[in-house]
Amino acid sequence: MSQEVVVALVGAIALVLGGLATLAGTRGKTRADSRASLDARIDGRLTKEIERLDARIDEQDQKLEDQEQEIDALRTQATNAERVKHAALRIIKSFVAQWPAAPYPRFNTYDIAELEEDTIPTAWLTPKETS
Questions:
Q1: pTM here?
Q2: Transmembrane segments in this chain: where (predicted)?
């Protein structure tokens, strides 16, 4: 073998060994880079999802607060309506107690039914209309 062929073979072997060393060195790095890239993408997605869920929780909390305020307002209205109902019942009871013996006043049974109590004597009620 000539000297030129030996030099070429040694150069080729060195080139192949260098390529293998480079491949072996970068293969681990490529996997690490790939994993790091995947982790970064997952972290980005998770961050966006967490932000979206936090915004949704805040929105639901606001809706819940609004509903609680609405419920409080309805409770206040119901309490006022109950107070008015009881006042009307007291007035009717007082009216009944002060009415002379006869003739009795005639009340509409539908109106009396709204009061949810029997505070008017039956004789005072007008008969229900039949349709």
A1: 0.46
A2: 6-25
